Amino acid sequence: MKSSIWGIIVIILVICISLILWKQHGRVVGSDNDAVTAGQKEALNVSNEQVANVTTTASNQFVVRPGSFPTNVNTLGAAELALWRSPIEFYGKVIDQNSNPVAGASVEFHWVEEPTKAGNKISRGESGPDGLFSLHDAYGPSLSVSVAKDGYYTSRSASDSFRYVGGGFHPDPLNPVIFNLRKKEKGELLVENNFPPGIGQIWQLHHDGTPMNLDLVNGSTDPSGNGQLKLEFWRDISNRKASVFNWKLQLIITAGGIIETSDEFPFEAPETGYEPSVIIDMSATNQQWIGEVRKKYYIRLSDGRYGRIDFYLLPYNGVFIVHSAVNSSGSRNLEPR
């Protein structure tokens, strides 16, 4: 008799615990900053590492960040799987550098309808006469979009990844996402060089300002000091382990000029505005201190030829990379053939 009573008690406890977990599974925790409780972790079947990827919204729905859950769909509950299958719609428009619509651009969509290999989906299409394109009847937490067309450069200025779950992206047919392409014009034969010249090589600047001269036409260093580009670098080495330190860099175009550009496609050098050198002076107390330099410059050489350089520097150890392109004809056109 006693064993029967205890058995009934155990059954009642199991039912109560199940009901509590079931309610917690769909309950709002509070704001996005609230912690996920142990009961919710168990109901969601997630690990401690995955808890950081789960928040809730005012609509009582768990928000699951894409890629945060196991790849086996059988380990997901119905609510989580439903989030993976959120409706996807997308509206885009392709334009050129003059804001004209580009028709016939190839468009490729990638998305995942569920966290399994079988859930990987691809769709391809083209932009219409007005440059517009769209995607419908897809499901998943996020979408990747790529746009290209023969005879055009693809711009990196537009986003190509869009999160529908937890990312705040809202498609709007009246405000399509803009994708920029730049029409290729008649290029010219440029003299292009890389410093260092080979893959796997490392070149470093001295920390005491000792100049390094680069011959941008012949693709070599010039110990005589007659190279077109001179690099001078200073770095405080009083504490080599310091993560923030004083450093300074000077780029000099010998008897010529240099000007920084933010153009994504630096294909036409300006006629004026050049300075003999540019200096980046970085104090350790600078609130905008940087430990890496990525710059693009137009250059005008002493003989009137125009060119451009891509420059990279790691101030910590003086490692640098330069890519140069010079138009030997004297034209300001720097688009490669």
Beta-strand percentage range: 35-45%
The succession of helices and strands, N to C, reads HHHEEHEEEEEEEEEEEEEEEEEEE
Name of the CATH class of the largest domain: Mainly Beta
Number of strands: 21
Structural class: mainly beta
Describe this structure in words.
By secondary structure, the protein is mainly β. It is 12% helix and 36% strand. It is built from 4 helices and 21 strands. It has helices at 2-25, 38-44, 48-51, 78-84, and strands spanning 54-56, 62-64, 87-95, 106-112, 120-126, 132-139, 142-148, 152-154, 161-163, 177-183, 190-195, 203-204, 212-215, 220-221, 229-235, 247-253, 257-261, 277-282, 293-300, 306-314, 319-327. The strands form 5 sheets. Strands 11, 12, 17, 19, 20 and 21 form a 6-stranded antiparallel beta sheet that branches. Strands 14-13-15-16-18 form a 5-stranded antiparallel beta sheet, with no helix packed on it. The longest helix is centred in the N-terminal third of the chain and has 24 residues, at 2-25. Residues 1-71 have low confidence and may be disordered.
How is this structure best summarized?
The protein has helices at residues 2-25, 38-44, 48-51, 78-84, and strands at 54-56, 62-64, 87-95, 106-112, 120-126, 132-139, 142-148, 152-154, 161-163, 177-183, 190-195, 203-204, 212-215, 220-221, 229-235, 247-253, 257-261, 277-282, 293-300, 306-314, 319-327. With 337 residues, it is mostly beta strands.
